[in-house]
Amino acid sequence: MSFVITPPAAVAVPVVGTSDQFPVRRVYCVGRNYAAHAREMGFDPDREPPFFFCKPADAVIPVACGETLTLAYPAQTSNYHYESELVVAIGKGGSDIALEQALEHVWGYAVGLDMTRRDLQMKMREMGRPWEIGKAFDASAPIGPIHPASEVGHFEQAAIWLTVNGADKQRSDVTHLIWSVAETVADLSKYFRLEPGDLIYTGTPEGVGAVKPGDLMVAGVERLGELSVRVA
């Protein structure tokens, strides 16, 4: 078989401490999954069913341990926001996954950033239109190396944080997730068949805000280390 154009390169995220790579199939994101963040965005944080949006796989930008990614300030925005997140890497496929078996489908975890053109997201929301231009743009999903769950365990409790130029901006714990990792996996699998290679960005805590060229963001999750990104 021949292709009429050159196929795009596969997107893959390094596995910590090895030369192995985790291939990325799809990227799912959970909206407003911390109550305090829901409040700061103007919403009632009552425990309603989770909602999801997607980013393209090639929005994922891997960052190796100890390295700092230089990320260009994106076009068509003047309100470029960080959102630090715990990322789940799916290693076993399934549909309608039972809550009790959900964590069996998780291969590992990473630190990620859901970068957002907030002004465009808000404009689309006010117009009742999809969020893609605010959320699914190029290089909008930086991610650190993936840590196998067999080594770091699962994340019912872990600190999550983000600093900008050394100043605390986000500091919380994944215990404050409205929908836990297991609940998120189980619910998402009702709507999409999950497959190995899927990533789930599980939501961000309160304290989101804008960055400008020259700013250095450092996001972290306990047991997963930190992800360092500078805005060009």
Automatic annotation (TrEMBL):
Coiled coil: none annotated. It holds the Pfam family FAA_hydrolase. Keywords: Hydrolase, Metal-binding. GO terms for molecular function: acetylpyruvate hydrolase activity; fumarylacetoacetase activity; metal ion binding. The keyword Hydrolase applies. It comes from the Bacteria. Residues 27-231 form the Fumarylacetoacetase-like C-terminal domain. The keyword Metal-binding applies. InterPro entries: Fumarylacetoacetase-like_C, Fumarylacetoacetase_C_sf. Its EC number is 3.7.1.2. Gene3D superfamilies: Fumarylacetoacetase-like, C-terminal domain. PANTHER family: ACYLPYRUVASE (PTHR11820), FLUTATHIONE S-TRANSFERASE (PTHR11820:SF90). This is Fumarylacetoacetase.
